[in-house]
Amino acid sequence: MRLIHFLKKREVSMTTVPQSRVNIRAARPEDGEACGRICFDAFSAINAAHGFPCDFPAPEMTIEILSMLFAHPEMFYCLVAEMDGRIVGSNVLDERSVIRGVGPITVDTTAQNSGVGRKLMDAAIARAWEKGAAGVRLVQAAFHSRSMSLYTTLGFDIREPLACVQGRTRERQVAGCEVRRAGTADLAACNELSRRVHGFDRGGDLAHAIESGTARVVERGGRVTGYASQLAFFGHATAETNVDMQALIASAESFDGPGILVPARNSGLLRWCLGNGLQIVQPMTLMSMGLYTDPAGAWLPSVMF
Ligand SMILES: CC(C)(COP(=O)(O)OP(=O)(O)OC[C@H]1O[C@@H](n2cnc3c(N)ncnc32)[C@H](O)[C@@H]1OP(=O)(O)O)[C@@H](O)C(=O)NCCC(=O)NCCS
Known about the structure:
Shape: globular
Bound molecules: coenzyme A
Distance between the termini: 46 Å
Largest sheet: 9 strands, mixed
């Protein structure tokens, strides 16, 4: 009896809504309010269900982030899903680099598991290939079986387990390394470093971070050996060696958002973080489609990729 009840419940929850009821369209700035609320509720629900804190402190923050992304179509391709005319989700494709980043994607908790997420992903991936992207990447919460299944069946490969870490390091600097705020004059050296480590640069993203005042570079032996667009959940960093990356991490008073994303197979760097008092908040996964080469250096992805 209980088994029949379970199977019936599962059947209902796995039912796909007729696709004609779901419409995907370009997001408009005024959609930020509805989509921001859906985003906050969706992350709160999935994280709470697994005993993790929400990635965002309040709906005001997700509303602000999505409204900002929706207001910049020259950098971000933003999509909204409607079901019977009601907004039920959104997705964002960061188009600032030859590698596109997907996210945040969220679907209203009352409309999940009915095909809306897949439609939002299909549209973002189609756009990436149509515009000549070399690859598409994303970061997902490793405990979230649904998103991992969805992305895997869409063709994304798991590339790297990540540890989201938070705190303030006990060591505040690293011998031989000088960390300072990045300026526009550093852009060329940082882009060249990124091309050496990753095979592509993230100059658009970095230029924006320099303008906002969040970017830093580390110098060793009189030259730039690493940079961070921001030491935060939404920032990325690239360096020649772990020592350079440690200097960048040690220079931060705190990490905005849930934390920075440390590639967990870089045991030396992760052990250094933990030995310095940082704590793991949650496990995450970097996934990719298209071009991917193992980075030849130390790196921290942002939650976008
Ligand atoms: C992740 C999210 C966007 C997916 O949207 P969705 O509309 O629920 O997803 P869909 O129904 O389109 O697709 C889910 C797929 O996973 C499958 N699935 C779900 N749980 C599964 C499991 N445990 N094992 C295997 N497959 C599973 C479903 O059957 C479906 O596959 P199908 O398209 O082949 O039928 C949505 O659940 C959400 O907003 N979650 C909370 C926020 C979040 O985690 N966002 C992603 C951040 S990376």
